[in-house]
Amino acid sequence: MAEEELPGVLVLDIGGTHGVLENLAALLKKHFRLITMKEFLENKKEMSKKIQSVFVFECRPTIDRELLESLPHLKVIGNSGVGVDHLDLKMISNFGVKVTNTPHAVADSTADMGMALMLASARRLVEGNVLHFPGS
């Protein structure tokens, strides 16, 4: 499928401080045409016709009324995080747009870290390390 035929997905950026991670962008590019916010803002009229989805990574881009009004073909907002507190779900649904997220993406890692911290605290591992290996 040619890149022009792929559905357009708006992302804040690729790489950098707040952009979609490079390896994730490579995966997305197999199925979508990624359009950065910069590209969109430079040519809103043309790009707005191509964008069917917004990929929210680390709460960016911000989804507000102005953005939704400028994307007449928007069908879905894919949020890469667990929660959707940063999204106004009622306003988004008024535009007929669906919202997805990844509710269990970090559940196991969070539980593992919680257990590790509790065990380290109960066994006083950090204190023991400092006492036996000063300066570490």
Q: Bin the strand percentage.
A: 15-25%
| Percent in helix | 40-55%
Number of strands: 5
Computed Rg: 21 Å
CATH architecture: 3-Layer(aba) Sandwich
**Shape call:** elongated
Q: Work out the count of structural domains.
A: 1
Structural class: alpha/beta
Would you identify the regions where 5 or more consecutive residues have pLDDT less than 50? none
Might you state the CATH topology name?
Answer: Rossmann fold
| Overall average residue pLDDT | 90
Protein name: HPPR reductase
Domain D-isomer specific 2-hydroxyacid dehydrogenase catalytic: 23-114
GO cellular component, one term: cytosol
Keywords: Oxidoreductase
Secondary structure topology:
Layout: E1 8-11, H1 22-29, E2 33-36, H2 37-42, H3 44-50, E3 51-56, H4 65-69, E4 76-79, H5 89-94, E5 98-100, H6 107-122, H7 125-132
Parallel strand pairs: 1-2, 1-3, 3-4, 4-5
Written overview of the protein:
This protein has 136 residues and is α/β, with parallel strands linked by helices. It has one domain: Rossmann fold. It has 7 helices and 5 strands, in the order βαβααβαβαβαα. Strands 2-1-3-4-5 form a 5-stranded parallel beta sheet. The longest helix is centred in the last third of the chain and has 16 residues, at 107-122. The radius of gyration is 21 Å and the shape is elongated.
